[in-house]
Amino acid sequence: MSGIFLKILTFLSAFLMLFLSPGGHIRQPSEAKECPAYYGAPAVANPLEAVQVPQHPYLAEEGRNGMHGNSYNTGTYDYMGPLGINPVVNSRSLNVFGGLVATLTFDSQGRIMCMSGNVVGFRLLLLDAETLEVLAETRLPQRPSTIDAILSFNFDKISEDTSGGAYFHLLEGDRPIIGNSENVIQIFRVDESSGKPEWVVEQEYDIMDDLPEGAYITDAFPDYEGRIWFVTRPGDVGFIDPDTKEVRLIRLEGEEIQNSLAIAEDGVYIVSDHAMYRFDVNEEGNPYYTWRTEYDRGTVAKPGAINQGSGTTPTLLDVPRSDGSIAKLCGITDNADGRVHVVIYDRLTGEVIAAVPVFDEGFSVSENSLIAHGRSFIVENNYTETGSGFLVSDPTGYPGVTRIDMNEDCTGAEVVWESREASCTVVPKLSTANGIVYLYTREMNDDIPEDAVAWYLTAVDFETGETLYKVFTGCGRNWNNSYGPITIGPNGKVYVGVFNGLISIEDTAPAQ
Questions:
Q1: Mean pLDDT, to the nearest integer, of 323-350?
Q2: Three-state secondary structure call for residue 7
Q3: What is the H or E stretch that residue 159 is in?
Q4: What is the CA radius of gyration of the chain?
Q5: What is the per-residue burial (b if ≥16 Cβ within 10 Å, else e) of 379-417?
Q6: What total number of domains does the chain contain?
Q7: pTM of the predicted model, to two decimals?
Q8: Among 56, 66, 62, which Cα is nearest to 103's?
C-alpha cells in the first residue's frame, strides 16, 4: 500500500513542479516586496589564518568534502564568501513537496554535488554552481520514517530522522559515499561517457543482515586506514574492514546517535544522547571505545532539539599551547536544563577541560555543529518558540551566537563575545579569507510586515561579534532553512539549503 502511495506522490510532485515553480525559482509571496532588501554596509575583508586541518587521505580536498567542511567538522573554509557588495540572491526549487538541500559538496570541476530531501525521499543531485540547474540526479530508497510520516500525517518524523542519506562525504576522485535507508553503503561517481553526466554506483557494501532490525545508517565514511566507519540511530557503531569486507560492530545499549562522526588520525569521535566517545580498533580488529565521558543531558528534549541529548556533531581542533605542545581538543554542547554548556574535551583522554554555559537562562539549546578555528569555538542558539519541524513555517528563534576561546595553556576557556542575532536552525560557517561568520536569521522588527516571515543571510565579524550586514533572501516556509547548512563555495558564493531547495548569495560589481 505504501509503495503505491509513494509512486502516486512522486508522479504528483513531478507534475506540479511544471506549474508551481516557473523558471525553477523558489516562489515569493506578495509581502516579500515590503521587506527591506539590505541592512548594514559592505564589509571589509579581515583575513584569518588558513584552516589548520590535516588532509584526510581518503577524502576529497578539505573544504569541499562534507557538510562541515572537513573530517574535523570545523565549519571553516578558506574560500572568500560575499562581503555584501551589491548582493544578488538566486534560487532553485527542487520539489513542490520540499527539496531541502542537506549536505552540499563541490567536485573538482566546481560543480555542486548535494542531497535534496522531501516527502518523496532523498535525491543525489549534480548541479551547475552558477545557475543551480540540475545536471544529473538519482533517487535513493525511501526511508521507513518518511513512509510512517506520510501515512500518519506526522511530518515531524521526517525532520527527526537523520538516517538514510542526509549526511554524505566526498571521497577523493569526486565520489560521494552514502549510507542509504536499505543499509547499503554506496559509492557513486559521475559518468559522462554518453555525452551528459549520469550518476552510477561504483561500489557498494550491503550490511543490512549485519545490523539489528530497525537500525538504519546515519553516516558512513573512512578513517585514515580506509576502514569505513558507520553509526545508526539506535546506537550501533561499526566499520567495514577494507581487506576482508567483514563488518565489525558493537552497540551502545540504550543510547541514540543522531549526528555525524568526526575522524582524525588519532581516533573516531562519536556523540550519543548520553555521552561523548573516542573509538579505536583493538588487537582483535574490533571497534571499541578508549574513553567514554558522560555529559549533562538534561531532563527533557527542548524546543528546537531532535532528542534529549547533544545536538552537535563533534568538532575537533588542534591548538598550540604556550609551551609549544599541541592540545588535541573535541567540542560539543550538552543539553543541560537552564543553559547548555560548550563542553571541551582532551580528545586523547576524555577529560573535560572546560564547560562554558551559553545563551539565556531557560532558552538555550544547540542542534548544530560548532565552528572551530585557531583557539576558538563558536556556538549558535537553536531554541525556537514555535518549533522547527518539517512543515513549521514561522519559527521564532531565540538570540545567541557566542565565541569561546581556549586560554594560552589550554586548561580552560572563556567567552570572548556574545551576539544577539537569532539564527534559528542553520549550520553556520566561517570564511577565513574574510573573517566573516555567516548565519541565517529570521528578522522581526518594525520595518517588516507583521505577517511576513522574513529570512536574511547575516554576516558577523569573527573578531568582534559585530553584525556587518544582512541580505534579504525570501519570505515564508519555502525560504525557511529547516536545519539545512550554509556552505561557502570556491566561486565566492554562499549557498543555503532551504525548505524548497537551494539558494545562493553573491557579490556583484556596482553599476557603472
A1: 97
A2: helix
A3: helix 156-159
A4: 21
A5: bbbbbbeeebbbebebbebbbbbbbbbbeeebeebeebb
A6: 1
A7: 0.93
A8: 66
Residue 490: give the domain boundaries.
Answer: 2-506
Any idea of the CA torsion for 304, 308, 311, 317, to the nearest 10 degrees? 150
Q: Which residue has the cell 566561486?
A: 491
Distance in Å from the first CA to the final CA of the chain: 61
pLDDT digits (tens, 9 = 90+) for 290-315: 999 999 999 999 988 888 999 999 99
Q: Which residues of 159-169 are buried (b: 16+ CB within 10 A; e: fewer)?
A: bbbbbbbbbbb
Is 511 among the domain residues? no
Quick check: helix, strand or coil at residue 392? coil
Residue 326 sits in a domain of what CATH number? Answer: 2.130.10.10
Q: Which of 49-53, 55-59, 95-99, 347-351 shows the lowest mean pLDDT across its residues?
A: 95-99
Burial of 90 (0-12, 13-18, 19+ CB in 10 A): middle
Mean pLDDT (the chain, rounded): 90
Q: How far apart are CA 64 and CA 107, in angstroms?
A: 8
Give CA angle at 492 (489, 497), nearest 5°. 45
Residue 404 lies in a domain: yes
The total of other beta-carbon atoms located within 10 Å of residue 109's CB is: 10
Question: Is 405 within the bounds of a domain?
Answer: yes
Q: Which residues pair with 215 in a beta bridge?
A: none
473 assigned to some structural domain: yes
Could you tell me the three cell numbers for 177? 559515499
